[in-house]
Amino acid sequence: MKRSFLFFFLLLSIPFHTSAISLQEIQNNPQKYQMVAQDSKYALFVDSDSIESLRYSPPYYTLKCTAYLVNYLRGRILSSTKNISYDISYRDFNHRKRKISELGIYISNHYEDIWSLNGNYHLYEPKSDNSDCDINSPVYQVANYLFYKTYNEYYGPQFGNTLY
User: Fold this and answer.
1) Is-contact 26 36, C-beta < 8 A?
2) Residue 108 burial by Cβ neighbours in a 10 Å radius (0-12, 13-18, 19+)
3) Contact at 8 Å (CB) between 35 and 12?
4) What's this model's pTM, rounded to 2 decimal places?
5) Residue 74: pLDDT band with limits 50, 70, 90
6) Distance between CA 149 and CA 116 in Å, rounded?
7) Residue 144, SS3?
8) Which of 17, 27, 82 is nearest to 50 (CA)?
9) What are the distances in angstroms from CA 5 to CA 10, 11, 13, 16, 119?
10) How far is 33 from 69, CA to CA, in rounded Å?
11) Which of the 8 DSSP states describes residue 119?
C-alpha cells in the first residue's frame, strides 16, 4: 500500500506538457495564431487568445502575450511569454531612432518550451531576457501588433508589413 501511494505521488510530480504545439496546429488556426513576421528561415506567430492588458495608465501601457517562433532550419518551435511596456511619450517616430527603446517600447521575454514541428516536446531550460531590438525587428512587429489588437491603433509604423 505504501509503495503504491509513493508510486502514485511520484507519477503526479512528473511535469506533463499538455499544451503541445505543432506547425500544423498553428497553420490550421490562423484566427488564433497570427503571423506577425517572417523571412526565409523563421516565422513568428502571436497567440491572439493569450493577449492581455496588464497596465492601462496613459501614457503607460503593459501588454502580455504568448508568441511562437517557428525555426524552419532547425525544425523547432520555441514558445515565449512576452511582457511589453509602452511609454507613449516617446512614441514620435523619426528616422534617427534605431532601437525600440527609443520609441518607448520595453520587452521582457521568458522562453519556456521547445517542440519539433510535429509537436514532440524537447527538454529545455527556461530563460529570460530583456530585448532592445532594432526598429522593424520581429519583436517590434509583435509589440506593434499587440498594441493594434488591444487599442485598435498601431503604436508605430508597420514598415510595409501587411501580415496583420
Assistant:
1) no
2) middle
3) no
4) 0.84
5) very high
6) 29
7) helix
8) 82
9) 9, 10, 12, 19, 32
10) 11
11) S
Grid coordinates representing 44 are 513568428
What pLDDT score does 18 carry? 47
Please give the full DSSP string across 29-82, using - where no structure is assigned.
Answer: -TTTEEEEEE-SSEEEEEEGGG-EEEEEETTEEEEEEEEEEEETTTTEEEEEEE
**Opening angle at CA 40, ends 115 and 23, nearest 5:** 30
The mean pLDDT value for 135-153 works out to: 95
Residues 6+ apart with CB under 8 A from 71: 41, 42, 77, 78
C-alpha cell at 25: 496546429
Q: Span 123-129, mean pLDDT?
A: 82
Nearest to 140 by CA among 34, 69, 35, 37: 37
